[in-house]
Amino acid sequence: MNESLQNRLRQTAATLVALTLVLSVVGPVGTAVAAPGVTVSQTADSASVTPGDNVTVTTEFTVTELNSPQLSTSTPDGWTVESQSAEGPAAFSDGTWTWLAGDDDGVNVSYTVEYTVDVPADASPGDYTVDAEGSALSPGDSSRTAANDPLTVTVVKEETNTPPTASITGPSSAAVGSQVTFDASAADTDGSIESYEWDFGDGETATGQSVDHTFGSAGDYTVELTVIDNDGATAQATQTVTVDAAPEPASFQVSALTVPSSVTQGETATVTATLQNTGDEQATQSVSLAVDGSQVDSQSLTLAGDASQQVSFDLDTSGLAAAQHAVAISSEDDSASGTTTVEAAADPSPGDVAVSLEPSNQTAATGDEVTYDVVVTGADDVGSFEGTVTLTDTTSATITNVSTPASSGTENIDIDGQSAQVEVFGLPTDTNGPVTVATITVSADEVGATNLSLSDAFVSDVAGNGYTIDSTSGGSLTVGLTPVVGDSTPTNLDDDPVLEDVNGDGQFNVGDAQALFYNQDSPVVENNVDRFDFNDDGQINVGDAQAAFYQAVISES
To answer: How many domains, in total, are found in the chain?
Structure first.
């Protein structure tokens, strides 16, 4: 304590003595007022901690008849305040809490402060001081009054338990059904072994330093030993045991038989099946093909244990009657059977024809409809037709109608928008080839392109004899917008949605910017903003013409 502070205390004490004498003479005049002062009291949630732990300190801070309370904590080097909380309107910074409290006579306040200090992981054992100093200022002359309460925290060395060690002595191979013995070896340098626990990897367990076990099936098993010491620490050891069984004899099982449901008399039918050796030993067996219980073909097959292979037979149907026949593939151990229907051979084909869509390639503006004729080339005598026309992309176009030249009641048409299935007979006979057997109407819906395929085609003459179809060809449709200017539709010259070729001349230049500028109010532009929004602002205005002009100049440079 400095000399000036001591003088002040002496003067204050003398004044208080004199005041006491006066009051004793004149009698009581009122309640005594507590002397200005500061008190600090600290407690910790634990008096001792281990390195890397933390300690929470609660500090009671009281100020009497003074202003501007302030509390500061100091911690050992490397110790840090991890979190804190304080009563009242306190501001915290770098270990110091400051309260905005005071008036002309000083204030009487009490605050509880709680803070948590992290202890470094490398802190050495010993006593450490966590100090807290509280202070306040006199309302008269701003002189400072302070008090502190150092708190001792002891860092103790954390006791650790050294885990035990473990090992297994036992066979690495065994036979199914035979008993084997496993012995455990374990050591614990700072305690004792309390238990030995075994897991044999087959769902069975046991305890004890030496155990016997019998494996019930072949396989590789991981035997695991767990030892536990007197402090709960564990150690594991494992050993793989291969358990063998007597090999299973070869057995050729037949599965996945495939037999054509029908075949034309005189054609060759392919019959297949999968043969698997479910045993362990390799073997060779004869695999046979039988029709109606009589063997008609065979082949030799060698399979290793658990191996499989597909076998295939070519069945000549020229000697089979037009009827249903039982077909089987057999090994020496198993068989699988199915049926096939041999159908009488049709009359010879009246000739070769080609079926196509005409015109093959078309363009249209959105909202338009185009038609494709299904045309049979190579014959005048066409009595019936069957086929399917399919669009590859229904976002740009859909099939809306199919018409045929046949009379009502002799056609069956099924349309789902993407495809049209056509079956028609009784076609007019007073025609000269090529013959149009159907007309497909397609609606151009959105800008884009789609192909039209022609499949499952069948064409017959008036007697019902089927032609040989040597080729089918489809078509395509490119859908664009209504022309912005002139007669050509705008087109897209890259992969984005914007149609750069506004005037439809097949190229992108300043002329397209001018076409957009003079026609920005046209319905085709206003109704397709995303197709002409060159500046990508979601609307059409002169900025899009400027953006198109700029992009065209760059592309031409």
So the answer is: 6
Bridge partner residues of 232 (DSSP)? none
Sequence-ordered strand ranges (E) for 9-79: 37-44, 48-49, 54-74
Is the previous residue joined to 171 through a cis bond, with omega within 30 degrees of 0? no
Task: Give 160's pLDDT tier (boundaries 50, 70, 90).
Answer: confident
**Residue for token pair 């009698």:** 27
pTM of this prediction exceeds 0.85:
no
Q: Are residues 192 and 228 in the same domain?
A: yes
Contact 331, 275 (CB under 8 A): yes
91 burial via Cβ count (<10 Å: 0-12, 13-18, 19+) = exposed
Judged by DSSP in three states, 188 sits in coil
Per residue in 39-70, pLDDT tens?
A: 999 999 999 999 999 999 999 999 999 999 99
Domain that holds residue 145: 37-155
- Read off the pLDDT of residues 466-490 as tens digits, 9 standing for 90 and up: 999 999 999 999 988 889 998 888 8
DSSP code for 497 = S
Phi, psi angle pair for 166, to nearest 5°: -145, 150
- Same domain membership, residue 384 and residue 463: yes
Examine the domain organization and report whether 129 and 95 are in the same domain: yes
Beta bridge partners of 491: 501
Strand 107-118 with 80-86, pairing: antiparallel
From start to end of 94-251, where are the E strands? 96-99, 107-118, 126-137, 144-148, 151-155, 165-169, 173-175, 179-187, 193-199, 205-207, 210-214, 219-229, 234-244
* CB crowding 309-324: b at 16 or more within 10 Å, else e: eebebebebeebeeee
Query: What's the CA gap between 174 and 548, in Å, rounded?
Result: 82
Peptide bond into 497 cis (omega under 30): no
Among 474, 473, 479, smallest CA distance to 491 is for 479
Listed residue (327, 289, 333, 332) closest to 311, CA to CA: 289
CB-CB contact of 97 with 57 (8 Å): no
